[in-house]
Amino acid sequence: MLYVTDGPANQAVKVDPDKLRILARWEVGRGPAHIFMTPDQQFIVNTNTESGDVTITDASTLQPLATIPVGKSPHGIAIAPDGKFAYVANLGSKDLAVVDLKERKLAATIPLDDSAVQAWVEPQGRFVYVTGLNSGQVFKIDTASQKVVARLPVGKLPAQLGVTPDGKYLISCDQESAQLSIYDAATDTLVKQLPLGTWTHGISFSPDSKYAFVTNTKSDDISVVDLRSMTEVKRIKVGKGPNGIAASYPNSPIKKP
């Protein structure tokens, strides 16, 4: 199943991706933005930018279980690999909220000195990375100490980011710079800044970590990046203003695009 948010309607939506059919809608907070399912597939968690909270929904019944205030203008969200915590990037309050999903409460707030756009937890759960919109950097935060341990310079107006499934690379989508900033996640060393389409925004990966798929919002296309050669190997035209992206390979081997 595919879950998306409908911001104007203040709803989350369940979609059958094979039949491209809406199966259900349910009410969440005001201005829903990013949405994720917990690793055990029991809960769906989404941010609500206008109401400043997150909604936790039972994935089987689609009934909201809790609404948790997290800060001003929450946008991106990431779930820890063990499913215990959600990390919420707050654009307005310039911090990262840590939500205890078992207790269904705000566990901590980690101050940042920039508008936080998106968060991503690396596969081992040791670090969470957050893009700083105005400063052109990615904050690396130790999940145990809840402290910023590194600031990684990237391009202008970074939006979404991700760590490859094998944990090797941290990649930031730098919108105004129209590029990816690719870091070695083990050493925090910049490997390459790769120009792509106009206004690079969202990113997803193939399960084998060989490819990245990047939305270019203002050129209306998707870039396919080979992470072995660090080159763009294909550009795919899509509809107007592509934003977020998710890649799925159900019951099939990975094939070269």
Description of the structure:
The structure is a single chain. The chain is mainly beta and 257 residues long. The chain has a domain at 1-112: YVTN repeat-like/Quinoprotein amine dehydrogenase (Methylamine Dehydrogenase, Chain H). The protein is 0% helix and 55% strand. The protein has no helices and 23 strands. It has strands at residues 2-6, 11-16, 21-27, 32-37, 43-48, 53-58, 64-69, 74-79, 85-90, 95-100, 105-111, 116-121, 127-132, 137-142, 147-153, 158-163, 169-174, 179-184, 189-195, 200-205, 211-216, 221-226, 231-237. The strands form 6 sheets. The chain has a 4-stranded antiparallel sheet, with no helix packed on it. The chain has a 4-stranded antiparallel sheet with strand order 8-9-10-11, with no helix packed on it. It is globular.
